[in-house]
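JOB MANIFEST
job_type = single_chain_structure
chain_count = 1
residues = 357
[input]
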Amino acid sequence: MRSQTFSLLLLCVALTSCQKEEHQVAELEIPVRAVPVAFTDYRYSIKLTGDIVAHIQSNLSFRVGGKVTEWTADVGSHVTAGQVIARVDPRQQKADVEAAEAAVVAAQADLAQASAEFERRKTLLASGSATREAYDQAATALQTAQGSLDNAKAQLGTAKDALGYTELRVDADGIITARNVEDGQVVQAAQTAFTLAQDGPRDAVFYIYEGLLQAKQAAPRIEIALVSDPTIKTYGKITEVSPTVDTASGTVRVKITLEDTPPAMTLGAPVTGFAQSEPTPMIVLPWTALSAIDTKPAVWTVDQGDSTVSLRPVEIGNYETGRVVISGGLSPGDTVVVDGGKMLRPGQRVRIEGEQG
């Protein structure tokens, strides 16, 4: 009987001890730092590097094919309108001009003969010594000879134009940015020989990710600064957006026309473009607040009723140095753990030791 009573006492002591241990574990609180959720007017800042290019850039090519005999301008050369920068062998075109000139001389002789015959038939018809049919034939021959002469002259003009096309002339002032011909090279008509960046307005070209195009700019003007000297600045507006995405880089070509071009912003000069989006309500948190659920972003939120935590999935608006921008998943009044989250588990009780403003 005594042994049974002693056993019951031991069992009660053991149960009491276990309850105390479980209560102690359940009551264990981990100190954390947290912040209340608040929306702020956030602006996306976009800063990219691009290059200065000519507003108008044209490809120069010969209108006739042939063997290149010389070129007089190279990459970087400044050329003026009408300047000859290359030639092809003109012997074929000169022969065509000589043949056309001979055809004109022959047509002139035929016209002179037809004209004399017409006048003779006209006189004979007036005196009654020739028939009307003979007169009409002479008139037709005269018209045919005149047409042949006009055609020969047109052919001569075409041949002379072709001879002139053996010289490649610049159509505007500018700088040669590419040369694709060499002496002795045989080129075809319309094959690009030079690329000309015309003098005048300049553009800045950037390659940006497609998602950045969705953000609405706060102002239409974009600040452009020289990489080598950021104090040299100008402004511009987007004038062209490529309709296709580059498959290799996943970027879109955007052209910004500059309002004015500082002398230091020469062709090919690297520049930075800076713009901001319109303000959007966002939640900005330190990067230490960020955790994950199945590789998806999440944060620890504190239940103000029982001081327990749970993981809340969130949507990321942007990643920045030292902080993360939350675009969805949280509401005003939520409390987010920003320090100490690595030691937490769902349902864990925490003790907020300090709130960051």
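[summary]
The chain is about 25% helix and 40% strand.
The longest helix spans residues 91-127.
exit_status = 0
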